[in-house]
TrEMBL record:
This is Reverse transcriptase Ty1/copia-type domain-containing protein. Coiled coil: none annotated. SUPFAM superfamilies: DNA/RNA polymerases. Residues 11-68, 77-181 form the Reverse transcriptase Ty1/copia-type domain. InterPro entries: DNA/RNA_pol_sf, RVT_2. Pfam families: RVT_2.
Length: 183
């Protein structure tokens, strides 16, 4: 749980603030998962703090939730660690302090989100918007039919990147181009 909250701090996900009048905070909860090795033995315990999005109201807590996705996966794959913590919030959203990690000094305060939190209805859209902006600024061209497909041409070589939720698959005609993207 501490590792998860350190990710939040490192990614500047939220600020501890007083709840403004007429605002309703969204609850949070911990989700636990055991990562298993090939032999089925637990190799790591993971905790993820998620928003309780079932209480979000359309038009109040979020406007848009659509984020394109890709149905067929093949090729090289990369999981983006803490991917949803990178997307900036367009809406003003407040969440309660995580259970068991309330501030002793300010127990009645809430967190105002700067960036998306796992479980929010708009988190995939916010993550996609941030990644799309980065790729376009880096010289990639977005597919005209598939909005999750991005192409980069450099000196006769091509790199293809496909986004799928918090994963990416990619490949290209140059080992150097593929390696530089993976870094």
């Amino acid at each position: 749980m501490h590792e998860e909250l350190e990710n939040f701090e490192r990614n500047h996900v939220w600020d501890l603030v007083e709840l403004p009048p007429n605002c309703r905070p969204i609850g949070t909860k911990w989700v636990f998962k055991n990562k298993q090795g090939e032999d089925g033995m637990v190799v790591r315990n993971k905790a993820r703090l998620v928003a309780q999005s079932f209480c979000q109201k359309d038009g109040i807590d979020y406007e848009e939730t659509f984020a394109p996705d890709f149905a067929c996966l093949c090729g090289l794959q990369m999981d983006v660690k803490s991917a949803f913590l990178n997307g900036f919030m367009e809406e003003e959203v407040y969440v309660r302090q995580p259970p068991g990690f309330e501030s002793a000094k300010f127990p009645d305060r809430v967190y105002k989100l700067r960036k998306a939190l796992y479980g929010l209805k708009q988190a995939p859209r916010a993550r996609y918007a941030k990644l799309k902006s980065f790729l376009l600024k880096s010289g990639y061209v977005m597919g005209s039919v598939d909005k999750t497909l991005f192409l980069l041409s450099r000196g006769g070589d091509t790199l293809i990147v496909q986004i799928y939720v918090d994963d990416m698959i990619f490949g290209g005609s140059s080992h150097a181009l593929v390696s530089s993207f993976a870094e």
